[in-house]
């Protein structure tokens, strides 16, 4: 349900959905400057598939030559698998940011292919799913402080497609976790979706933050914030291009208006 939770604490970070304005939506995040992206004109050809792209190839998960060596590289504390539906429009999904910004930590596959799920958990808000933080605290206690899984699986797809994928018998019985009460900063209006319906890259980010809070004894110093590098850039780009008051996404997210 949208806006039912006014504020919540996520892995030590207070997410205050009502007073958090657009300008400080990313306050405290350590995200590299993406200003240079504005100076990139036109498109170049992907080294691998030779299709014409602007910033990155969303088929090959590679940055375009003008971005090589200039975008951040993120190492995550646990391996992430993202499963996408073959009909999903790659260019619109934030999931493709993952393997581009964290190539060693995030793998993508296209259903009906599925990743090795022998020691995996699945992110999906089913009735039997546990809140991510509750689940991690519980398994930590039960396993002498360690996380007994190697990988966390996300599904990047529309709701109906996702429902079908998570009921595939190869992954249907995996332990499931969910993220509640975190409001999305996604700029694209999603009809019928509550404001807590996170973009895939946001969901990956928040699960890693929660994992860090539970399993890593070091304080969090922004290590995974650059996962939102393109997301942050697009967020501000869209806000500059459109008057926030007329952008439908903001109608359901009044705190993002100036
Ligand atoms: Zn390509």
UniProtKB/TrEMBL annotation:
<dbReference type="GO" id="GO:0016432">
    <property type="term" value="F:tRNA-uridine aminocarboxypropyltransferase activity"/>
</dbReference>
<keyword id="KW-0539">Nucleus</keyword>
<keyword id="KW-0949">S-adenosyl-L-methionine</keyword>
<dbReference type="GO" id="GO:0008033">
    <property type="term" value="P:tRNA processing"/>
</dbReference>
<comment type="similarity">
    <text>Belongs to the TDD superfamily. DTWD1 family.</text>
</comment>
<keyword id="KW-0819">tRNA processing</keyword>
<dbReference type="InterPro" id="IPR051521">
    <property type="entry name" value="tRNA_Mod/Golgi_Maint"/>
</dbReference>
<comment type="function">
    <text>Catalyzes the formation of 3-(3-amino-3-carboxypropyl)uridine (acp3U) at position 20 in the D-loop of several cytoplasmic tRNAs (acp3U(20)).</text>
</comment>
<keyword id="KW-0808">Transferase</keyword>
<dbReference type="InterPro" id="IPR005636">
    <property type="entry name" value="DTW"/>
</dbReference>
<protein>
    <recommendedName>
        <fullName>tRNA-uridine aminocarboxypropyltransferase 1</fullName>
        <ecNumber>2.5.1.25</ecNumber>
    </recommendedName>
</protein>
<dbReference type="GO" id="GO:0005634">
    <property type="term" value="C:nucleus"/>
</dbReference>
<feature type="domain" description="DTW">
    <location>
        <begin position="53"/>
        <end position="243"/>
    </location>
</feature>
<dbReference type="Pfam" id="PF03942">
    <property type="entry name" value="DTW"/>
</dbReference>
């Amino acid at each position: 349900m949208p806006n039912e939770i006014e504020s919540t604490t996520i892995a030590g970070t207070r997410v205050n959905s009502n007073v958090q304005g657009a300008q400080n939506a990313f306050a405290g995040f350590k995200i590299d400057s993406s200003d240079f992206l504005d100076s990139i004109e036109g498109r170049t050809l992907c080294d691998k598939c030779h299709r014409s792209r602007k910033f990155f190839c969303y088929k090959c998960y590679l940055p375009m030559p003008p971005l090589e060596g200039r975008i951040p590289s993120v190492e995550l504390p646990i391996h992430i698998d993202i499963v996408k539906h073959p009909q999903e429009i790659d260019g619109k999904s934030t999931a493709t940011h993952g393997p581009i910004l964290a190539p060693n930590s995030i793998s993508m596959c296209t259903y009906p292919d599925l990743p090795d799920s022998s020691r995996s958990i699945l992110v999906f808000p089913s009735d039997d799913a546990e809140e991510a933080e509750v689940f991690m605290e519980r398994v930590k206690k039960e396993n002498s402080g360690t996380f007994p899984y190697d990988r966390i699986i996300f599904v990047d797809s529309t709701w109906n497609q996702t429902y079908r994928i998570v009921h595939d018998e190869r992954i249907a019985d995996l332990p499931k976790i969910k993220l509640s009460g975190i409001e999305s900063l996604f700029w694209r209006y999603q009809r019928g979706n509550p404001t807590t319906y996170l973009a895939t890259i946001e969901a990956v980010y928040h699960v890693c933050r929660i994992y860090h809070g539970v399993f890593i004894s070091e304080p969090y110093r922004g290590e995974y914030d650059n996962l939102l590098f393109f997301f942050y850039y697009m967020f501000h780009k869209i806000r500059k291009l459109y008057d926030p008051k007329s952008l439908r996404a903001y109608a359901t997210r009044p705190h993002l208006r100036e």
